[in-house]
Amino acid sequence: MEKTFAGARLRQLRESQSMTQSELSRLLGISPSYVNQLEHNGRPLTMPVLLKLTETFGVDADFFAAQDTARLVADLREVFADDTVGGAISAGEVDELTTKLPEVASTLVALHRRYREARENIATLVSEQGLDRTAAQQPHEEIRDWFYQRRNYVAELDEPAEKLAAELRLHPGEVRTGLINGLRMRHGVRVVTEALGTDQHRFEPRDRVLRLAPTLRPGQAAFRLASELALLEMGEVIDGLAGSWPYSGDTARRLARIGLANYYAGALVLPYRVFLGAAERYHYDIARLSDRFGVGFETICHRLSTLQRPRTRGVPFSFVRVDRAGNISKRQSATGFHFSRVGGSCPLWIVYEAFSAPGRVLTQIAELPDGKKYFWLARTVTRGTGGHGDPGKTFAIGLGCELRHARRLVYSAGLALSSTAAVTPIGMGCKVCERPACPQRAFPAIGKPLRVDEHASSLVPYPPLG
C-alpha cells in the first residue's frame, strides 16, 4: 500500500478550525510531536489516524489523497522561465515546492500573472499610438483562466442542467423540439426562424421572442436554444460565478456570462451521465457519439473535456482549437497539459499536421520536456458562412489525454503504448521550450545564452552556449 504524506492538507484542515497542534493531538489521541511530524511529512498517515480524522472533521479520505500537481508544476515552471523574473529553480525544487507547499506555489503563479498583466498594461499605456492593446491580456484569456482553475468542470451548472434535461425529456433527435417546448412552457418564450444577417440567433427579452437563423444545423440550433435557456433558468447562479473572479472590466464579466451559459448549454444538450455512459460504451469514438447525439465533432470534443465530476470521471482531456496560422481560439484542460502564453505553440504538435489531411483523424504520442507523455488526436472541421465565393472557416480540433488513459480510446487500437512506444518530442512553445537541439525551433529560449560563432554553423537554429 502506498504511503500517504499529507502534511499540507492536515495543516490546512487544522488551521481552518483555528486549532493548535496540541488540541489536535488530544482529539486524535496521539502526541503533539507526532502531529508535528505528520504536518511536516516526517511520517505518513496511518489508517487509524486517517479514520479518526475523517470521523472528527467530517471529510472524505480523498481529502488527504496525493494531489495531482502536474498543472501547478507547469504553471510554476513558466513563472521561472520568464526572463524578466531573473530567478532560476531546478525541476526538483519545483516538484518539492508544489508538493509540500502547494498554496505558496499557487500564490506565486497568481502573483506572476498580476505582474505580467501590469507590465502589459504599462506597455499599452506608453505605446506610440496610445491605443494599442494587443500586448494586454484579452478578456477571452481571463475567461479561459477561470475555467482552467476549475479544471473545466462547473458542478453548479452541470448538475442542474442534467436534472433539467431529464425533466424536459431531451432525447437524441428530439432535443430541439424539447428545448422549444421548455422555453415556451417555463418562460413564455416563442421561437421563430428567420434570416438574421450575420447573427446566428437573437433573443428579444421584452417580446419574449427567440429568433434563429435558418442556416443553423440542428445541433447548432439546439445549442443556441439551450444557451438562452441557461440565462433564463440559471441567471443568478451564472452572475454569482461570473462575480467570483477578479475580471478586468465589464467586457470580461459579460464574456464570462456567455461562457458559463454555453457551458450549461453543453451540459443540457449532452447530459453528464447519459453522455459519459455512451462515451465509455463507444470507447470515446467521436464519430459515433456525434451520430448518437446529433451534434458536431467540435461539440463532442469540447464536452468530453468537461467530464470531471468527482467519483464519476471520464478520461481527463485537454481540448484545443487552432487555425492555419497557429492561433489558439479555444483551449480548455482537465489535465496537466499546459498551454503556454509565450512563445506560441509547437510546430511538431499533431494539431497542425491535421490541416494537411482534411477530415481525417490523426493521432500522436507526444512527450513534453519533463518526460510526461500524452496521446493526442486531431481533425479539421470546416464551416461555410454563405454562398459561393464567401470565405469559410477551417479549424483543427485537438483532444489529448495522458498516455496512461489512451487504452480506453478506440483511436489507440493497434498502437504501441508501452514505454518503448515511438514518441514525438514537443514543447510548450519555442520561447519556453527546454529542447536546445530542436531543428524546428523558431525562437531562442528566453533566459538562455546563445553560442554565436561567425566561423561556424549548426543544424540547430539557435544553438545554446556550452
TrEMBL record:
The protein here is known as Cro/Cl family transcriptional regulator
Annotated ranges, domain HTH cro/C1-type:
10-64
Its domain of life reads Bacteria
Organism expressing this protein natively: Amycolatopsis antarctica
Q: Does the keyword Transcription apply?
A: yes
User: For this protein, what is any one GO molecular function term?
Assistant: DNA-binding transcription factor activity
Listed under GO cellular component are: cytosol
Keywords annotated in UniProt: DNA-binding, Transcription, Transcription regulation
Q: Which family does the UniProt entry place this protein in?
A: Belongs to the short-chain fatty acyl-CoA assimilation regulator (ScfR) family.
Work out whether the entry's keyword set contains Transcription regulation.
yes
